[in-house]
Amino acid sequence: MAYRFFDHTGDFGADFEGADQAAILREAVRAFAELLTGEQASVGSGRALAIELEASDPAALLVALGNELVYRFEAEAFLAADLDVQEVAPGFLRALLRGEPYDPARHPIARPVKAVTHHQAACAAAEHGWRGRLIFDL
User: Fold this and answer.
1) How many helices (H) and strands (E) does the chain have?
2) For a disulfide at 110, which of 25, 38, 39, 101, Cβ 3.0-4.6 Å?
3) Splitting the chain (138 residues) into consecutive groups of 10 residues, what average pLDDT does each group show?
């Protein structure tokens, strides 16, 4: 696991590490599934949804992806488990979200996520790979 959760004044945060920007985005999807359901491994990846996101920079793109996950869950009852990145640039993502329809019997909600905030959001190249951070509004 290349992410770590931490408490953040009534909310919840996650720090990510990866080889590149695409790895940070994938880890964010996996972390969201675990945060929401309590265990990421219980979410299947048999269904794919195409997404395309644009933002001003890598941190804003990470936030946009987080809010896309919240939207897909709330509006479409789609629970993402993984991300197949097709194209990524500092402010652009084209990918397939992999997951399955939300099933309350199989996916009890551990921590309902209302949104992903820009507060302390980060995604940038570091000395060894990339690092990212998101704060989830619970």
Assistant:
1) 2, 7
2) 38
3) 86 96 98 88 90 98 99 98 97 98 92 95 96 96
The CA R_g of the chain, rounded to the nearest whole Å, is 14
Residue 118 lies in a domain: yes
The CATH number assigned to the domain holding 49 equals 3.55.10.10
Determine which helix (DSSP H) or strand (DSSP E) holds 62, and give its type and residue range. Answer: helix 58-76
Running DSSP on this structure, what letter comes out for residue 42?
Answer: G
pTM of the model: 0.95
Phi and psi angles of residue 73, each rounded to the nearest 5 degrees, phi first? -70, -50
Q: How far apart are CA 66 and CA 29, in angstroms?
A: 7
SS3 25: helix
